[in-house]
Amino acid sequence: MDIADKKEEIKNCINQQQYDEALRLVEVLLDSEPLNADYLCLKADINKKKGLWGDALNQYNKILEHYPEHQQAQIEKGMIQSIFNLSNIDIFDCTNLYDDPWF
Asked: Higher confidence at residue 18 or residue 92?
């Protein structure tokens, strides 16, 4: 089985929501090429789908450490950081109703 077939199998697992199996297959690819940006992006995408945002962010940071110009990693990292920033809003701490995000 060549790499294109393995990547297709991973995408099929993702489409069928078999994230653990997809992650296992990506790990096999990463064993042979641990710094391959495509494989690391696949792993990060799977982690996002599993709701493991911190793990996905770590994967994107790893990609950017070795490939600083990688556009997908830059975009995805920014998106995850935006989600983290939104989840840090404390609506009960704000006494000014004009700053309350719910009004």
From this structure: 18
